[in-house]
Amino acid sequence: MKRPAWLGGSRPLQWSVVVAAPGGAAGEQWGDTWFARDLVAALRRRGQLAKVVSRGGANSPARDDDDVVLVLRGLRAVSPRPGKGIWLLWVISHPELVEADEAARFDAVFAASEHWSRSAELGARPLLQATNPERFSPTAAEADSGEDILFVGSTRGEFRPVVRDALACGAEVAVYGVGWEQYLEPGQIRGEFVANDGLPAAYASAGVVLNDHWSDMAAEGFLSNRLFDAAATGARIVSDEAVGLRDVFGTDIRTYGHQSELCDLLSGDRGDIFPGRAARLALAARIAVEHSFDQRAGELIAEAQRLLAR
Questions:
Q1: In order of start, what are the domains of the chain with their CATH numbers?
Q2: pTM for this structure?
Q3: What residue stretches are annotated with the Spore protein YkvP/CgeB glycosyl transferase-like domain (predicted)?
Q4: I need a labelling partner for 186 at 20 to 30 A (CA). Which of 10, 86, 260, 286 fits?
Q5: Is residue 125 a contact partner of residue 113, using CB atoms and an 8 Å limit?
């Protein structure tokens, strides 16, 4: 490809960030949609022209006008549309669904894991999930002023392990998410969702935030976006174990392997079990610098410029 005359920085790149979520109201309940919006905002802060495109628009002729199409790979595959621009694939979830022939259609592939066993096979480079520290911040709410033990997430068609285990321990968990009616009593369900604008305050104010992963994502090191968001607010966090979690968060996030370990974490003195406020704030500050969408946007822009300059 001939090097464009503007590539030295005189013209911003035009980006479309494609999500697996549908358009309209249904897509508003997909975490992928909000992930994409935070990324688009970061791209714009770096002078780029960027927008979110739902899965229905992935192969629209309008993509021919884009310099870069970035596909956030979740539940559904997208085939690049031939055109003047470049196509990037960022595997942020469900890595088991990505086949070699799919990855080969893209100009570059990124994966939200440092430990994905198939990275070499697919030519994928690590690019972990991220947070928006302008929203997810310790200042979002007063610490320990909200739910005592909080879980935000849908059932995904199963009795989520961390909620199941916490309830088996006798813990009172405030659950927000869809699909919980088949597993919980009505009084245990606080609501079907937390509005995304309210999520930072929900995490920052909680006594403890619970997290878990799909088993294959935990095994392959695809760390949950919830970990980055909650850590950025200074919350106490308990998660199932996942490959690479300590590499990113150190020991400030408490993990459990067996139900009895979770019971000990949730029933003991929090001052003894969890890092103190100062340590959690230090982690939040580090996450804001090292794992922000602005940082990820910078890496993506650099790669796009390199590819366009070939």
A1: 5-130+292-308 (3.40.50.2000), 138-290 (3.40.50.2000)
A2: 0.92
A3: 169-301
A4: 260
A5: no
